[in-house]
Amino acid sequence: MREWIRKALTRSTAVRGSRGGTVYRVVPPEPKLVYGVYFVIAGLIGLISLEIVHLIVLRAWNSEIFAAITGLIGTILGVFFGSKS
């Protein structure tokens, strides 16, 4: 899964070469960013499973867990959209 995250966060920029051609420069993400996104996705999976268990056991929706899930989804989307610019 880390390779998928690393590949998704890798940027490639077009640079004009010395002979007038286009050369693509690949900029890999920092390892801290990759591990941070990996940790956030693992936390999201944990919170979703906690919400499912809460629904099965107590037969009620927990809005605090849902708010945390929504916040983590926003964080993940912000990282992916912010790293491409």
Describe the overall structure.
With 85 residues, the chain is α+β, with helices and mostly antiparallel strands. It has one domain. Helices cover 67% and strands 14% of the residues. It has three helices and two strands, in the order αββαα.
What is the strand content?
5-15%
Order of helices and strands: HEEHH
| Shape verdict | rod-shaped
CA-CA gap between termini? 23 Å
- Mean pLDDT figure: 88
Low-confidence stretches: none
How many independent structural domains?
1
Q: Note the total helix count.
A: 3
According to DSSP, the number of beta strands is: 2
How big is the Rg? 19 Å
Roughly what percent helix?
Answer: 55-70%
User: Major beta sheet, specifics?
Assistant: 2 strands, antiparallel
User: What topology, given as strand order, has the largest sheet?
Assistant: 1-2
Structural class: alpha+beta
Which structural traits does this protein have?
single chain; 85 residues; alpha+beta; two-stranded antiparallel ribbon; 3 helices; 67% helix; 14% strand
Describe, in short, the structure shown.
This protein has 85 residues and is an alpha+beta fold.
Write the topology of this structure.
Elements: H1 2-9, E1 11-16, E2 22-27, H2 31-58, H3 63-83
Antiparallel strand pairs: 1-2
